[in-house]
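Most newcomers find our protein records easier to grasp once they have seen one. To make this concrete, we reproduce a full record directly below:

…
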Amino acid sequence: MSEIVTFGETMLRLSPPDQRRLEETRELEVRAAGAESNVAVAAQRLGSAPATWTSKLPDSPLGRRVVGELEGYGIDADVVWSDEGRQGTYYLEHGGKPRGTNVIYDRSDAAVTTAETGELDTGLIEDAELFFTTGITPALSDRLRETTAELLETAAESGTKTAFDFNYRGKLWSPDEAADCLRGLFPSIDVLVVAARDARNVLGLEGEAAELGTELADEFGFETVIITRGAEGALAWNDGEIVEQPSYETETLDPIGTGDAFTGAFLARRLEGEDVATALEYAAATAALKRTIPGDIALVTREEVESVVAEDDAEISR
């Protein structure tokens, strides 16, 4: 039995090496990339029980490429194989200032957009300790809006704890569409992760991070609300108490997947019985390490994370 089950799309990320432009590169690096599978990998590496990512993929070399890579990282992949639909991809062009990083999605008609609850092994979710998905998934299709809601309800009704990363993507839907859909999912969610900017710009809330977390918890009855603030760190509302966690100093080589690393580490440590403050320390340290690693996935060890935490604690005590 897996301790954590995640559901969502995993794409293939195609990137020119050495910060080259897409229009002139002769080669592309290929990596699996998806918020929910990123979280599963981070949680599995920093916890003690297996993690499972579930989804729908095309029965093709590209679909099998995704599964092969993810299973190589140690998680289980429970996949519905489809003869229809394609493998979603995205192109990532890295660049420093002032050019910046450019992301081009190519995920229309991906097989996952047709995934129905009846196709998936919901027994995995019912038997798990925690079920996780993100706001990216219901943004991909009307069908996935229904499926995401049904899976969260299945988890809640079976006593499986649920966690959800708001993860708003402006390239997928408008703030009003997202707010209307995701608010409807909130009653089935125990742990919410949301960026402060999304709480304000999408949900229309006002105030500092502590006020945002408190208002969300009061209105929707979340067990835990985590407000992320980028370089300013994160804050958690849990059972009426506020816990703050600053970010750790890091050299950024690849920022993509930082939030997923944070969330996966937090969930893993909470499932191991750690308190919120300790789980936030692990999450922040894992996020800092991820920014030094190319690709979307946080290939870190618990020893590395604990070393970052210990080094910071030593600095504070000096």
